[in-house]
Every structure is written in C-alpha cells, then in structure tokens.
Model the fold of this input.
Amino acid sequence: GIVWPVSLSWCVLQDHLDDLLRQLIVLLASNDVTTVTCTAGVLCNLTCNNAKNKTIVCQLHGVQALLQAVNNASGREDIIEPAVCALRHITSRHPSADMAQNTVRQVGGIPVISAFLHQQCRWPLLKGLVGLIRNLALCPENHFHLRQQAVIPKLWNILTRAYTNSSKRGVPGGPQGLIDGVYMDEVVEVSVGALHLLARSPENRHTMRKLNTVKLFVQKPITNWR
Done:
C-alpha cells in the first residue's frame, strides 16, 4: 500500500525515510506494472530537491534498480519517464552525485538510456532524458561511452526539433511553444547545456563541427545555458 499516495509524496519533507526508500527500491523489481509505475513516481517525487533522499537512494543501489526498471518496462513511458526523472535527480546536486554518474556507466546504463532518444518518445520523457544525459556529461569518464551511443547527433536532433517547435502551439489558442506540457525553450536550454558539457572533449567537438552546430547557435543566441 505504500506506493499509492504518489501526490502525497510531494509533501514528505522530513528526513529519516531510509526504510521507506529501501522498500520502494525493492518494489521496483515487482512483476506488477501498476506497482512499478507508482513506485517510480514516488521515488521521483521523494528525490526532487532533497539531497538526503538522493544520497540514501544511491547508497541503497537505487541507480541499478531504476535502470533495471527502465530496461524491463517494454517501452512503457508511464514507467520510464518517472524512473528517468528519478535518475536525473540522483545524478545531480548532492554529495554522492558523482558516484551515481559513474554507477550509470559501470552497470551498462548509458546504452539503455540513449536508446530512448528518438522521435517516437513524447516530450516529457525526452526532456527528462536530456537532463539525465546532461548530468552524466558532468563526469568526463562518461564522454566516450556517450559518444559510442551516438548521443551527440541524437541530442542535436532533439535540439533542432525543439527549436523548430518553439514557435508552435500544442493546442489551438494554447501558449506558444508548449507541447505535451513541455515548453520547447526549456528543452532547447537543457540540450545546449548537455552539448556544452560534452564539448569539453576534443573528439566530441569534432563530432559537433561535422553536425554544423554553430549555425543554429549563431542564428538563435541562447541565454542562461551554462
């Protein structure tokens, strides 16, 4: 019964959630789709802006459990999206973030993640994936493995699509650039941030030059992208 109050998990601000987090990580391996979906959602919420919970999840091998849930999801975005967002949370802004960034690589998670960077995925998942890639790019040891999975051209494709859609409306009369609940300018910003980090590698810069990335950056200067 602990996986149902997903919305209530936003309100849990107290520490000492070790036992709850441990149970949630175990439940990620459940054969019940609904259980896994709700569990991933709760973990996503509990790791949002909570450094203590992020650290605990890392220590309890939550990175491995979340990646396994993504791998077992058979393309179900209702599982993959919250699991990816939880991974994005725990690979950034807490004392064990670098450990989480390395763990994703060490357990073979980069191919699993990069496989979803395609046009069939909806924008909420793509935004979460790009944010996770950006965090992984903070670790220089991940650059080679990200390049091996053709992440740079995939990111460039997402960036150009988001830029093209930034002037469109998801629904008639709706806000400009808002598609599937995601503002395209935010996707552009996080994509540029990921490419900026990856550009620290000479090999990655060579790949970017071949994609003619400079043309778009000159065409549309982007602020607050670091």
Observations:
- The chain has 13 helices and two strands.
- The radius of gyration is 18 Å.
- Residues 2-7 have pLDDT under 50 and may be disordered.
